[in-house]
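Cross-check.
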Amino acid sequence: MLTPFCLWNMWITRNKNLFNNKKDVIDEAIAINQAMEYHILVAQKEKKSVNKLPSHLNGTP
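Predicted model, tokenized:
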């Protein structure tokens, strides 16, 4: 799950360095934080959707 965020941050850092004439290094902490945030948000959304029944199954006409 970490790979897409690492690749994205490599791409962003590359573009910043190329177009802004910088020599920044890739900050892996940012990729890890983004992956953790994504995981937390997806887990919360899945937890909410598991507890909800579709309207046609909840017994109301």
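The two ends are 41 Å apart (CA to CA). The mean pLDDT is 83. Passed to J.P. for a second look.
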